[in-house]
Every structure is written in C-alpha cells, then in structure tokens.
Design goal:
Blueprint (H helix, E strand, L loop, with lengths): L6 H6 L2 H24 L5 E3 H9 L3 H5 L4 H9 L2 H11 L4 E3 L1
Antiparallel strand pairs: 1-2
Helix pairs in contact: 2-3, 3-6
Length: about 100
C-alpha cells in the first residue's frame, strides 16, 4: 500500500494499521460526501476540501468504523503527516457527483 507519504509514517504504523486508516478515509467520505457536496455551489470540491472534511470534527471516529487505538495513533501524528496520508489515498484533483 503506497500512500506516497515517506518512510517516517510507515515506521510509525504497521501495514494493518495503515489499511485501517485507508478504510476509515473511505468510510468517512462515503458517509459525509453527499451531504458535503449538497452544501456546495457546484458539483465538485477539491481534493484538499475532501481531506479537510474527512479529517475535521472527529468524523473518522464517527463514520470511519476504525479501532480507537489505531485512530488515536493516527491522530497523534503531526497534522502534516495525516494530510500526506490522506493525499496518498484521495488521488483525484476533484470529487463530486
């Protein structure tokens, strides 16, 4: 699994934890995406906006179906590293209907 995130994060999390994070990104966006898009002026939002929505307001805890210990470990990473992980998962420039 390549998140294009460098060795620093890989050293801090094992492959199972990384897979859980990937799944939590997916589940969270699936749960909130339509509502987020409905609140926008257009049909799409940027990759950065998607990442911000997924990482914000403890949404991964609410919608990500992720083990609390893994989420705590992820949240303990510097925000810049969490962004890099999400950028590696969300690969499109824009997301929409």
């Amino acid at each position: 699994m390549n998140y294009s995130m460098g060795e620093m994060i890989v050293d801090k999390m094992n492959i199972n934890e990384l897979q859980e994070i990937k799944f939590a990104f997916e589940m969270t966006w699936q749960a909130i995406g339509m509502d987020i898009l409905a609140c926008t002026d257009g049909d799409t939002i940027s990759k950065g906006e998607v990442i911000e929505c997924v990482l914000d307001a403890d949404r991964m805890s609410a919608y990500g179906d992720i083990d609390k210990a893994i989420l705590d470990k992820f949240n303990a990473l510097p925000y810049s590293e969490r962004i890099k992980m999400a950028e590696g998962y969300f690969t499109f420039a824009r997301y929409g209907y």
